[in-house]
Design goal:
By secondary structure, this protein is α+β, with helices and mostly antiparallel strands. It has one domain (2-65). It has three helices and four strands, in the order E-H-E-H-E-E-H.
C-alpha cells in the first residue's frame, strides 16, 4: 500500500496527516512530495492511494473517505 501526499499544497497538513495515516495502515509506504494536483491541493485535502486520488474538503472527512476506500479494496 502506498500513500502519496503533497507537502507543498495548502489544503493538506503533512504534520498532522502522516501520523494518522500510519495509524490507519502501519505498514504502508508514505511518499511525500509534489503529486501534480496543485489545483485541487490549493483548497482541498487529498491522498493518492495506489494511484487512486481521494479528495475531501478537510482532513477529518479525508480520513473517513480513506477508511471507507480501504474497506472496499
Amino acid at each position: 500500500m502506498i500513500f502519496r501526499i503533497c507537502d507543498k499544497c495548502k489544503g493538506t497538513n503533512v504534520k498532522t496527516l502522516v501520523p494518522k495515516l500510519k495509524k490507519i495502515s502501519p505498514d504502508a509506504c508514505i511518499q511525500i512530495g509534489c503529486q501534480g494536483l496543485c489545483g485541487i491541493g490549493r483548497s482541498n485535502s487529498f491522498v493518492i492511494i495506489n494511484h487512486m486520488p481521494i479528495i475531501a474538503d478537510n482532513e477529518e472527512m479525508l480520513l473517513q473517505k480513506i477508511i471507507e476506500y480501504l474497506k472496499q479494496v
